[in-house]
């Protein structure tokens, strides 16, 4: 029998916490292990309960969701905890800091129940998930700002194929879509993604997206 995915809900709105709890507890293979009404409580409960996934609202009192995410993801004792960030807005000032802080995924609160449950399930496996609108905004934002890319010596060790796949990941393509785009098998794609995670010391795909943008590789390699 598959292990139950243990979820901690962090949101300052009791009504939303209750709605999320009903949805998650009614989903086979998932269970809510705790609720937090502010970021500080989320950090404390994450340390006490060691959930698989923290459903993290980014706008909360005492300690906001971005700071709470940073504390959880920088804690070596919480290495197995994944954060799925939620917000009402897909504004750039929330998206990028949340991912930089270590969030493995980002969904808007108007996501469908199926998308939310799917996001929790994907993140619990160690992968990352980004709402399509979030990925598109990241692309537009970085292209518009034209910032000077940060030095990224870690990219030197990547093969040409790995760099190509990293760009596709940054553009929001799934493994299946990458397989179809490059006409290579799924096992080959998974091998390359695993190599990227190891070489770049990334926790998941979301961090690969950040590395691709910060290095400038995503912009240089974006299709016309």
From TrEMBL:
Database matches in SMART domains: HTH_LUXR, REC
Gene3D superfamilies in the record: 3.40.50.2300
Modified residues (4-aspartylphosphate): 57
Annotated SUPFAM superfamilies: C-terminal effector domain of the bipartite response regulators, CheY-like
Xref: InterPro entries: CheY-like_superfamily, NreC/VraR/RcsB-like_REC, Sig_transdc_resp-reg_C-effctor, Sig_transdc_resp-reg_receiver, Tscrpt_reg_LuxR_C, WalR-like
Location of the Response regulatory domain: 6-124
PROSITE patterns the UniProt entry points to: HTH_LUXR_1, HTH_LUXR_2, RESPONSE_REGULATORY
Highest taxon in the source lineage: Bacteria
Listed Pfam families: GerE (PF00196), Response_reg (PF00072)
Matching CDD domains: LuxR_C_like, REC_NarL-like
Residue span(s) of domain HTH luxR-type: 151-216
Record keywords, A-Z: DNA-binding, Phosphoprotein, Transcription, Transcription regulation
PANTHER family, A to Z: TRANSCRIPTIONAL REGULATORY PROTEIN NARL-RELATED (PTHR43214:SF24), TWO-COMPONENT RESPONSE REGULATOR (PTHR43214)
Name assigned to this protein: Response regulator transcription factor
The organism of origin for this protein: Streptomyces zingiberis
């Amino acid at each position: 029998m598959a292990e139950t995915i243990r979820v901690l809900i962090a949101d300052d709105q009791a009504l939303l916490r209750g709605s999320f709890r009903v949805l998650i507890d009614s989903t086979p293979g998932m269970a809510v292990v705790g609720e937090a009404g502010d970021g500080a409580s989320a950090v404390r409960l994450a340390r006490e309960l060691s959930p698989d996934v923290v459903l993290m609202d980014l706008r909360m009192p005492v300690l906001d969701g971005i700071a709470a995410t940073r504390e959880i993801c920088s804690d070596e004792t919480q290495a197995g905890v994944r954060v799925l960030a939620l917000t009402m807005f897909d504004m750039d000032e929330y998206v990028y800091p949340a991912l930089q802080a270590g969030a493995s995924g980002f969904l808007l609160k108007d996501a469908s129940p199926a998308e939310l449950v799917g996001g929790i399930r994907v993140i619990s496996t160690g992968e990352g998930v980004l709402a399509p609108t979030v990925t598109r905004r990241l692309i537009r934002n970085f292209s518009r700002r034209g910032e000077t890319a940060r030095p990224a010596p870690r990219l030197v060790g990547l093969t040409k194929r790995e760099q190509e796949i990293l760009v596709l990941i940054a553009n929001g393509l799934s493994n299946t879509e990458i397989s179809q785009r490059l006409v290579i098998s799924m096992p080959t794609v998974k091998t390359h993604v695993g190599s990227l995670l190891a070489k770049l010391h990334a926790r998941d795909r979301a961090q690969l997206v950040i590395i691709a943008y910060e290095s400038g590789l995503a912009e240089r390699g974006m299709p016309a």
